[in-house]
Amino acid sequence: MDESDLLIQLSTRLDKWRKTNSGTYTCECPYCHHNKDTKKKTSAGFFNSYGSIRFKCHHNLCKKSAPLSEVLKDHADDLYQDYLASKRDHSKKINVEDQAVLAYRIARKMKW
Ligand SMILES: [Zn+2]
Description:
Layout: H1 3-11, E1 18-19, E2 25-27, E3 44-49, E4 52-57, E5 65-67, H2 68-75, H3 77-92, H4 99-111
Helix pairs in contact: 2-3
The structure holds zinc ion.
């Protein structure tokens, strides 16, 4: 599961999720919930930064800025575990002779 897959999964859990014309995503900030009581344009969102996805909130009192992995860790622990597993799988591709590792990877894939 790569970052864009994880972002799609995360999008179902965030309020006011919307894709913008420029291809980035806006949503209610899961940290400060700034837009909860207003009808104003959402001031937080996700964008691509040098090939990885980052979150940024533009509200003056929040200004949260974090990589996707940190948002997952804070707000969607199950997705964060998937993220960690995909990182582990990636590094293990170098040494696939280990049958136990291979079996583990196949089991993970079937679960997906
Ligand atoms: Zn915020």
